[in-house]
Amino acid sequence: MADLRNVVIIGSGPAGLTAAIYTARADLEPLMIEGEPSSTGDQPGGQLMLTTEVENFPGFPDGIMGPELMGNLRQQAERFGAEIHTAKVSRVDFSERPFRIWVGDPDADEPTHLARSVIIATGASALMLGLDSEHRLLGHGLSTCATCDGFFFRDQDIVVVGGGDSALEEAMFLTRFGRTVTVVHRRKELRASKIMQDRAFANDKITFVWDSVVEEILGEDRVEGVRLRNVVTDEVTDLPATGVFVAIGHRPNTELFTGQLPVRDNGYLVTLDGTSRTAVDGVFACGDVQDDRYRQAITAAGSGCMAAIDAERWLEAQEH
Ligand code: NAP
Fold it and tell me: How many Cα atoms within 13 Å fall on the side-chain side of residue 7?
């Protein structure tokens, strides 16, 4: 028989762990299902597990390594009694209460857990180019977040990959630090909005390499450059750089909730009225799975706190 929990938290990045800390301290005995690492990009602990130094999370004047920060949050949640399972949720059913959650065989008749409330914190994954070298060099000169890592690239030559608003935003931000910023785009036209294009074209630190794809990120232990192939001429060239930012979009991790919860046009979960409430009463969402705008560890943590308080109040209201 499945156990009935007050709160099940799905996902274990800064949002999920903050929700776990708050709900544990509210004596709700939360269960967090943290996911399992997979070749398709699942990453317990979230995107910070893939970064090196984090300098903008308040409270750490000397910075902290991403995995260490997540380890601290985890310890803090466990200290107050949050239970953490390393497993992947395979199916949810929010059509009736208590909500039903499956781990393992999604076709099993019986769910693994029953939950009075659910907090979704499955995050988003930065899209990557799919190169082996990315695994080796992520956090070693290769990054997916200029706000997080731009500071480390002072006076360096930086490459940004992508042609959307994100790529141009990252490129413009990086001009504050880098010596040069080169945007590599696979077509001759940018996808970004006109205003962003105008700004980027007007910035004399930014140059563009058109019609080009990154075939390899060069360097063994640290980024040393990119190998580019011009898709029109097939010409292959190496461009030296010590920083590479891949900015080709993010994918919110919402597959599990298809058909259960509404998503916006861009695939992010809908939350209501500036709260963490979703369209299903008793199901809350926090962190990057519902945030396409800020995507910071601290905003994810803040929204995890919101979800915990929303869930706590909702549970309380149900009892009365
Ligand atoms: P996006 O609009 O989907 O753009 C992704 C870019 O990456 C495209 O230029 C695409 O090329 C390129 N790309 C995709 N896969 C690639 C691959 N495998 N190799 C090389 N290039 C690849 O994503 P986004 O820029 O993250 O923006 C997402 C949404 O957020 C958009 O609606 C955007 O307007 C919004 N946003 C707004 C702002 C702002 O207004 N300040 C800032 C950031 C994001 P193609 O063009 O050839 O497809």
Answer: 37
Distance 280 CA to ligand 1 centre (A): 30
- Give the dihedral sign, CA 3/315/287/260: positive
State which of 191, 244, 268, 293 you would mutate to test the pocket of ligand 1, scoring each by most atoms of that ligand within 8 A of its C-beta.
Answer: 191
Most informative mutation of 165, 184, 209 for ligand 1 (most atoms within 8 A of CB): 165
- Per-residue CA distances from 230 to 14, 169, 171, 210, 245 (Å): 40, 24, 21, 8, 19
What angle do the packed helices 66-79 and 14-25 form, to 10 degrees? 20
Torsion sign over Cα 114, 81, 124, 300: positive
Q: 236 pairs with which residues across the strands?
A: 229
Cβ 154 vs Cβ 62: under 8 Å: no
pTM of the predicted model over 0.85: no
- Check: CB of residue 237 under 8 Å from CB of residue 246: no
Sign of the C-alpha dihedral, residues 258, 314, 123, 267? positive
User: Mean pLDDT in each 10-residue stretch from start to end of the chain (320 residues)?
Assistant: 94 97 98 84 81 87 94 97 96 98 96 98 94 94 92 97 95 96 98 96 97 98 98 98 96 96 97 97 98 94 98 93
Which residues are near ligand 1 (CB < 6 Å)? 129, 161-167, 169, 186-187, 191, 213, 248-249, 292
**Displacement of CA 146 from its chain's centroid (Å):** 14
